[in-house]
């Protein structure tokens, strides 16, 4: 048995080796346990996923889609195996920037619109397109240009609802493979060149003036017809002339005039004229 002298004491070398071995075993056994206890809260936080009512979670296991989109609720995942993507299922909106469009009658106009859409299939929105919002916006711009370029300016100004419905149908069909449902499309503003605006204003003013003249002429025509009928009635009944005269005198007396001219009925002096 080997002995060593330390600080004036004799120490057995085998005893030193046993103490050193027990110390190493203690470090090897309890240190990982201690590290596990300390790492448990953050590890638990990464293993628990909370999905809200308006969200859906898509799980990838080693790069492969697993099951269906999950949510809402609490789900446990393995950070080493699973990758989680969370998709918002609420309705979103975006403004289509003004598009310079050459109409069918060779007029350049700037038209913008607003699109309402939502994700209806979270798995398709993740796996089939990289950026679903950006792709939908670009598709809306292309659809707007293609539809309005085949219409005249008059059709664009007077058929906004029909054009919006046509754009909605095409956009919803094109974005369906991406898991997108387009709910509504509205054409907001149609900006015309200033010179064209002045021309249209002058044309509208001329049209209104011509319409006013036609209405005035129709009124005079109707008034002449009614006067002719009244004259025929008065001619057939002479007493109506006297009644009309009295009504006229009553109207004149109600006005504040300094001079009142009273017409003399012709039938009163008719006998003197005959003589």
From TrEMBL:
InterPro entries noted in UniProt: Band-7_stomatin-like, Band_7, Band_7/SPFH_dom_sf, Stomatin_HflK_fam
Domain of life: Eukaryota
SUPFAM superfamilies xrefs: Band 7/SPFH domain
SMART domains per record: PHB (SM00244)
One Pfam match: Band_7
Domain spans labelled Band: 46-204
Family: Belongs to the band 7/mec-2 family.
Protein name per UniProt: Band 7 domain-containing protein
